[in-house]
Amino acid sequence: MQFVGSTSRRKITRLEAKAHGTNQVRSKQRGFSGGQLFLIILATIAITIGITFFVIRTYIFPAPMTPVTLSASEEQKLDDKLNQLGWQGQSQPKARQVDTRSPQRGGAQGASGQKDLGELTPQPYREFDADRQVTFSEKEVNSMIARSPDFAKRAAIDFSNDLASATVLITVPRDFPIMAGETLRVNAGLDIHLDHNRRPVVALVGVSLMGVPIPNAWLGNMKNVNLVSEFGDRGFWNTFADGVEDIQIRDGELSIKLRQ
After folding, report:
1. Angle between the 72-84 and 138-146 helix axes, to the nearest 10 degrees?
2. Which residue spans traverse the membrane (predicted)?
3. Which residues pair with 256 in a beta bridge?
């Protein structure tokens, strides 16, 4: 009888130990402590404030863009490309004024003065195949945009494979009933490549306003429509397609080769 009693007491002790251990586990699994809850709430508030600030500064009230600037060597390289296309670059040395008040300086310095003024020198006309192909980097294109005071802080171009994207800041007219005088961020993308007939394809990928894509119906159903084939029978797109032999947009680069 004593043996049976001791065995039952041992079983009761084991059951009590198991119950006590189970209660400890349950107490540990009940939830977070007060400090942990405070840290979670604080992190949630910080993330919410960060996301709200990003949305406001990026889409609702975007800050002006920083104009792209080139170094002296990059500027000269860009001007060489523009001169190749017949455009006068901006890094050309400024002409020095010639002092015509002294007759002693009208001879030797007069000739050099005419040279400094950029007098045209007659030369025979030549065509080289390499002159028809020009490649512009994304930085060079944005620096050309920055030369215009109207677009210096309002437009930027991005090049990726077969895609040219533009970001433009547009100011709402002050007499407009909604958000008058505010600046809106507009993003647009163009798919540019050559088709199987070696004809340029320029198609609107989409337009977004303040990060929200605009429906295709609001764009006149022009998304993914080849503008060259749609309007190529007249005007700009026809002339553009006939004059381009090859066009490629790669990551950070635009390459164009003109026809003869």
Report:
1. 90
2. 37-60
3. 134, 247
Amino acid, single-letter form, for residue 177? P
Find, among 60, 71, 78, 97, the residue nearest to 179 by Cα.
Answer: 60
Strands (E), the chain: 133-137, 155-160, 163-171, 183-194, 200-209, 212-213, 244-250, 253-258
pTM (2 decimals)? Answer: 0.59
Tokens of 116: 């400094």
Mean pLDDT of the chain: 75
CA 188-191-195 angle, to 5 degrees, is 165
**In the chain, domain spans:** 2-60, 72-91+127-258
Which of 64-73, 111-120, 158-167, 170-179 is least confident?
111-120
Q: Which amino acid is it at 149?
A: P
